[in-house]
Each structure stands twice: as C-alpha cells, then as structure tokens.
DNA sequence: TTACGTACCGAACGCATGTTACGTACCTGG
DNA sequence: CCAGGTACGTAACATGCGTTCGGTACGTAA
C-alpha cells in the first residue's frame, strides 16, 4: 500500500500553488514543466508523478482557476435586485491583488481557449452560466421597479457581463487609471443608467 | 545595388499575409517561424532575411495588427453625437469574418502583452487613444442633449469601450449566441440607456 | 526479515524551436 | 564581359521543451 495515502492531495496542492504563481506573472504562455518545478524547488520528474502529461497540468491549471474563482471570498449579498447585481460584479472586478491575479490568468487563458475548440466551448459555457447567475437578480430588479418593464433580463445580463469584463481588461493594462474608486464609480453609473425613467 | 529594390516591400507584404493567417487560427501562442514559413511555402532562412529575429517578427505582427485595425473599412460617420459613437463601436464588433479575425488576434495578444511590460504599456496607450477618439463625440452628444448634462465624457468613453470589448470576447467564444443582430441590438440598447430622462 | 510498490531524483532522450553558417542563383554596375 | 552584393535554400547548430528511464529511499504487507 502507499506509504502516505493522504500526502498525495497535499502534494497536488503544493503543485497548484506553484502553478498559480507561474501563471500570475508569466501567463499560460510561460507555463512550462520546468518553470513550475523550479518555482517549487523540485525536479520535473516529480511533477510527472502527479500530472503524467502537460495536458494534464494545463487541465489542472484550468480547474484550479475555475475552483479559485468559485471559492473566492465574496461580499454579502444585500437586498434583492440591482444591489445584488452590483455586489456580484464588484466581486469580479480586479479591486484587490488576488482579484487582479485571477483576472490576469483568465485573460491569459483566452489565447489558449481560442485556439482549442474544446476549451473554447468550455469558456462559452462558463459565460452562459455567469449570465444565468446574474439573470434572476435582474428579473427581481425589474419586478421591484428598478428596471423598465420592457427590459430583457437575458440581454441585460450579457450587457452587464460585457461591461464588467471589458472594464477588467482595461484595468489590468492600466491599473493606475482604474483604481478601486474609479471602477466602483463606473459600475454604479452603469447600473444607474439601466434604471427606468425614460420616455 | 539590389536586384529588385521594390520587391522588398512586396515580400514583406507576403510575409504579413502568412503571419496573419497563422495568427487567425493559432493565435500568438502558435506563431512560430516554421509555421509562418510553411504557411507561405518558403524556408525559415528566407524569413530571416526580412525579419532578423523572432522579436522582430512579433513586433511586425503587432504593427500589422495595429495597421489593419487602423486601415479597416469603416462605416460612414453619420451626424455628430451618439450616432457617431454607435458607428465607431459597430466598427469594432466582430460582425464580419475580417472583424472576427482581427478581434481574435487582439484578444490572443493580451496573453503576450500582460507578460511583457513594454507591450502592456503599449496596449494601455492604445486604450487611452481609443477613449480619446470616442470622447469628443460623447461631448457633442451631451451638447446635443443626448446625454445628461452631468455626464462625464471620459468615464463614459471608458464605459463604452468596456461594454464593447466585453461583448467582443463573449461573441468570439459563442458566435452562435451573438449574431450580428444581437450585437447590434445590445449596442443600441446600451446607448439608449445612456440618454437623459431620469430623475 | 523479505518483497513490493510508491515517491522522488537526476540524467538522458527526441523533438521543435530560434538562430547561424554556407552555398548558389541572379541581377546590377562597371 | 566580370565583380559584387542581394535573395534566397539547405543544413546545421544550441537551447528549451515534454517525456522517459534507471536508480535510490522509504514505508507497508506478508
């Protein structure tokens, strides 16, 4: 029997940490077995014990990205409606260092995803799920009178996601111009513009 | 003297075409001297005659991307104000095959740009210029009463760019869900929501 | 104890990459 | 005509990559 049955998951966690560090400052283009190995001061052969091929490592990196995104600390959800949408989008924006790293890695993964059909549909599904998560809150907002009665929640969800991720990209490239306050103000103005009150 | 002084630029144009083809379906991660060479049925040595190093080839690819973006066919600009902004943003969205390829290559370049400080500031500057191009039209729109008098043109330009590029990314990954009509409708609704009329 | 399977290292392999060197064809200037 | 420089192609080079292989240490099972 294996000498340390519980260590295996612990080791994989160590590898995950090293993969994350590499991705955060080199991106997927700089993700290599040796870079990960030297980042945790082990040999490449050790990596192969836990991830038999590089595809497996990349798959693990993407899983890790999705997992860390799902398990990131989130704001409490305030009252239903646009306030909830605001909290969800604030949780996406690169306001803290961790958020910045996570977003940076997501953007980096797009190069890979666009070149691989399987990864591309995975990313498309992820967007679909994100819109589906936001949509009920927009429906609630409409019911509360925070949106025009003619508003299309599905389309608005796509618009909100578009605004948010477009802001993410601009903020990643020019963090000095998009500090936390600016991002929050842009989000608030964007959400306010969705409100009813026009002819 | 060189045997064909005018051919040099013609040859570089051929190389550009091959580089473009490679980028369009492999991205920057798949841009290699041999992939370009085989894409135009020549040897790698021939490439080195025109681009002595790979950095030069990458720099040329980025220049090409910027040039093709700048020189792409554009809609006529209608009346000043939001209608002009609409035309500018429509010119960005991936509505045609060429637009899709161009946007795909831009997104692919972000992985490279985020890992290289020089390229990152270049991309940041590009965004600054794009916002600066849109901003005067937003000021005109405000003067025309198409925007609230309290509107901040610089911030609105950033918001419009964010919405547009966020939509670009979603559309690239899920073109079936974002056909031309959907993208245009989203843009129109987004611009309409900026209008005055609220308390 | 022995036997065995796991964990891991270090070195090597095969391959693709960027780059360089050498050779040849060709056009141009004298 | 010839001399020389340019435009390639061919072949080799060194490097870094993913992957494989033998070997050692160790803990468990019998």
Q: What is the topological layout?
A:
Two copies of one chain form a homodimer.
Chain A: H1 7-26, H2 33-39, H3 44-50, H4 54-70, H5 82-92, H6 97-115, H7 117-143, H8 153-173, H9 180-194
Helix pairs in contact in A: 1-2, 4-6, 5-7, 5-9, 6-7, 7-8, 8-9
Chain A binds a DNA duplex (30 and 30 nucleotides) through helix 1 and helix 3.
List keywords for this structure.
homodimer, 199 residues, mainly alpha, Arc Repressor Mutant, subunit A, Tetracycline Repressor, domain 2, 2 domains, 9 helices, elongated, DNA-binding, transcription regulation (chains A, B), TetR family transcriptional regulator (chains A, B), DNA binding (chains A, B), repressor (chains A, B)
- Count of extended strands of chain A: 0
List the quaternary state of the chains: homodimer
SSE sequence of chain A, one letter per element: HHHHHHHHH
Rough outline of chain A: elongated
InterPro entries (chains A, B): BetI_C, Homeodomain-like_sf, HTH_TetR, Tet_transcr_reg_TetR-rel_C_sf
Protein name (chains A, B): TetR family transcriptional regulator
Domain HTH tetR-type (chains A, B): 9-69
GO molecular function, one term (chains A, B): DNA binding
